Amino acid sequence: MSDVVRRAVRALLFVFVVLVLCPVRYWPVTLGLDDTWVFALNYAAAHGLSTGSDVVWTTGPLGYLVFPQDIGNNLAKALVFQFAIWALLIAIASDLFYRSGLSLRNLGAYSIFLSLAAPLFWFNHMGVENLLIAGVLILLVMIRLRGGMLRYVGALVLIGIIPLIKLTGGLIAGGALAGFLLDQFIRVRAKAWRELVLAAVIPTVTAAFVCWLTLPTMAALKAYLDASREIASGFSVAMSTWGRPVEFLMGAEVILLLCAILLLLTVENRKLGVFFALLLAGPMMISVKHGFVRQDAHLANFICFAALAMGLAALPVCWKQSSRLVVGLAIFAPFLMLWQDYVIPLADFRTLIAEVSGLRASSHAAKALVRYGAVRRGLLAAAQGELANAPDLRLEPEVRTIVGDSPVASLSLRYSGAFVDGLNLRIYPVVQRYSAYTPYLDNLNAEWVRDRGPRFLLFDGGSIDMRDAWAETPAMWLEIYRWYDTRMLGRVNLLLERRAAPRFQRLESIARTAVSPAEGLRLPASPAPVFWRMTCGLNTKGKLRKLAFRISEVDAVENTCSGPRAPRRVVMDVLSSPVMGNFLPGSLAEFATLFKDGAIACPVGAIRFESGTGSYSDRCEVEFLQPATH
């Protein structure tokens, strides 16, 4: 191959990688489950609500800039941010392609694996943080291969920014940095002190500076960190779902294929093999847990991150020998088969091809640069079109008339329709109730209801993963019960209106006992509401499962006068807050009845727990409570 052809091929590969790395994306307001938190965070940012002090989520103060909607000035701000990131990623790619000295075969292998990782860069409306992680990994690899203090400083600055987009992304980048530093210590011992000091200082200073620009107070920063820790720590318990056992075999195969590339590299250069193993170990462990705790579309996240890791590991391998090429193909072919079996079915095929080729993001970028006004009109038209075609997710006209311009919040899973309905919307701290799955997060929403609850609340009765709607966030529902009455039960929505004074001031204890979760609890007979709370910690087995993997879901079976209800999932941690007992509503109509100061027609007499109780203590403390009469 002549030098001219080599330069042309290198340039084509460079352009391809630049397109795949493009971070420009924006979204219309749509009605899906995840679309709702995207809308809520955009709405919050546009209305001056701050991360930590006003809203908390898995994203940080820069989060809305990576999934912007055309609300307020969000879109314009986000495009500036995204194009700046793209310029930085182009510089990193240019360094890789034109300063690394790597052969075309190595760069070609990396480019192919990077394209297979592309769905990771679009995962669940986000992914820009994963592009920055890819940039960090490239820089750390380049430092190991070619050195360069500027590269190291750049990587550390990115590591300081990533957690302000998504904290778990910061953990992945931090894990890679820890592996890099460990390799430095193994190789040069005490001479690694400079890198260690810089690793401590630069990300901290960068994060502190961005927080100074984006967060109003230190208290807001602390609240963001506390809430992010709670969301991350509770995920394995509250959000776990089960999939096909064969998917674990797929995961093992992917790990083995990655290990095969690392082994191939280690045979050539043992020190480089150790470096890549240390660099990728932490990020892969986090990726495995993230992919298999919620064993659904998150599997694609795991496979695509593995593709990114394999592309990096393939960079220094000598592919000139025909035997190495044969081994490389023997690794790539089964991985491609697994990728097509588990990634393609989870996405629209045309969209997937656009992501893998880099055309999806680059077309977004071109439209934003050339036809910004048309982009805004298209986003609005898309939002209006989807909402118009989903009348069941819109407010009933009579409910809309009652609400008028009064402040209103939605307890429903999906409430993006508020954008088109023109509601005077209020956002509570954990912007979708299903993620308030620890006592700390549940109490954030409860305190908001008590102190800042709007005149009206809307609720459609839905919940994710077949959860019991009230027991999902019991502290929040307790405050709602204290402060709200039924105003109207519509065809789809229950409208609650705030009372002038609370229904009662406090709960008082009426009995205590210890129970086995499998045996459950029998509620005291009473014409008045009876609440209960249960403290049931994880046993040793449960603690190990939570640390390493996930906790099996626990279902509650509520026995009423007409027989048992269908099992409903509960999050055991939040049951330490008082839960409605005998009048626990099982339908939207029963919610409406309860909030009219009425007892449900067929009260609950007993509750037992089944399925995943083996991870919890076999003796749990239970307290029964009733509203105080004075």
Describe what you observe in this structure.
This protein has helices at 3-20, 33-46, 74-99, 104-116, 128-146, 149-161, 167-188, 193-214, 218-238, 246-268, 270-293, 298-314, 322-342, 349-357, 359-370, 372-388, 397-403, 418-421, 439-452, 469-472, 474-483, 540-548, 588-594; strands spanning 407-410, 424-425, 456-459, 484-489, 494-498, 507-515, 521-522, 531-535, 554-560, 563-564, 568-570, 579-580, 604-611, 620-627. It starts with a helix and ends with a strand. The chain contains 23 helices and 14 strands. A hairpin with a 2-residue loop joins strand 9 (554-560) and strand 10. It has 630 residues and is an alpha+beta fold. The protein is globular. Strands 2-1-3-5-4 form a 5-stranded mixed β-sheet. Strands 7, 9, 10, 11 and 13 form a 5-stranded antiparallel β-sheet that branches. The protein folds into 3 domains: 31-347, no CATH class; 391-498; 507-627, Jelly Rolls, CATH 2.60.120. The model has no long low-confidence stretch (mean pLDDT 91).
